[in-house]
Design brief:
alpha+beta; seven-stranded mixed sheet; 25% helix; 36% strand
Amino acid sequence: MAGVGAAPPAGLLLRPATASDLDAVVLIERVSFSDPPWSRRSFASLLDDPRVRFTVACAPAAGGGGNAVVGYMVMWLVADEAELANLAVAPARRREGIGRYLLDSAMAEALAGGAKSLYLEVRESNVAARALYGGRGFLAVGRRSAYYRNPTEDALLLRYRPPQVGRGAVS
């Protein structure tokens, strides 16, 4: 994983999500995705699921008022596969490396959890996200026609498989 494990953006802290983070997560979700966003109840249901890694990125709040949630990711780990179901960063904090750091964390957690593959879907038109994922070694392995509804658009199914020791990359 070239580049994985780089230092976090200044002041950024990743930690497991808690119930007190849900309002901030839902707000980021609503401004980040045009399809019907996940509900507060959907996020709340993930908090105690042992198969889920629900991580928030926190940064110092303006005015020194503690830390604020500026991004999050949700990943499922089942058997030897993982799926990155959701990753978003607050619009005002994009292009600071927060999304990359969340992705790197997800990849590391997937591998530590025994996953041999990590999957995700991305809008075909989401050039920034596709560049981020491609830069981390994700490859397109499928297409889901009309997967997104608002507006209607295909999703690309991407997969990351870590290199096998002594064998080179597996695709």
